[in-house]
Amino acid sequence: MSAPSQTPELPSSVAGHSFAPAPCYAAGPCLDLFCCEGGAGTGYALAGYAVTGVDIVPRPRYPFTFVLGDALEYLEAHGHEYDLIHASPPCQGYSHLTPEAHKGKYPKIIPALRELLRKIGNPYVIENVAGARHELENPVMLCGSMFGLRTRRHRWFETSFPVSAPRACDHSEMPLLVTTASKASRAKRHALGIAPKSVKNAPEAYGIGWMSSDGLKEAIPPAYTRHIGEAARRHNDQAQRPGPL
Question: Which residues contact residue 119 at a Cβ distance below 8 angstroms, ignoring those fewer than 6 apart?
């Protein structure tokens, strides 16, 4: 497992797009497991956390402290050092985009991950696609339209602290597509003279401007995890308030 690499700056394309970064990392350390290129981590940084990401392959575009290694091994060894733990385990085994004949090739690790997180005992978040909803406990669904983004990108979050959606979905506006487009959506956009998909849509659709095409395929819009990170901070503040005498 590699030593952490340090890159302390928030991505300027995010901080300057639609978010204002927290004035300092006042919330404590946050662990970002299966971190990819930093969509989730950026949201937690904007909520005030000092983020460390872990992934099994190098992620040169990851914008915070990065550890190259196995996420579950790192969690077991170091999870107790973090005030908040986020995990986005592989989704291919759950995704409707994966052919049914191939889903068995991909690991489904949510139950084992949850068991380890509960053993550690610190606040946690598990994120995945709609197909994993049945393995998540009391998850909340977040949509890009809830945050003024031009995407739907529904993602489900199991949390060990209370989180609610900021508002209902609003699908009245046609979303911008970034890396994937179904045959039906391509035909609809072609008829309207709209490009079916483009990575150039990522800043407006996801609030992301620094990722590769591969990173965007797996990205969580930072607005989602900023919302969750702020909820975690509120919950922690309430827990630390002294009770009535």
Answer: none
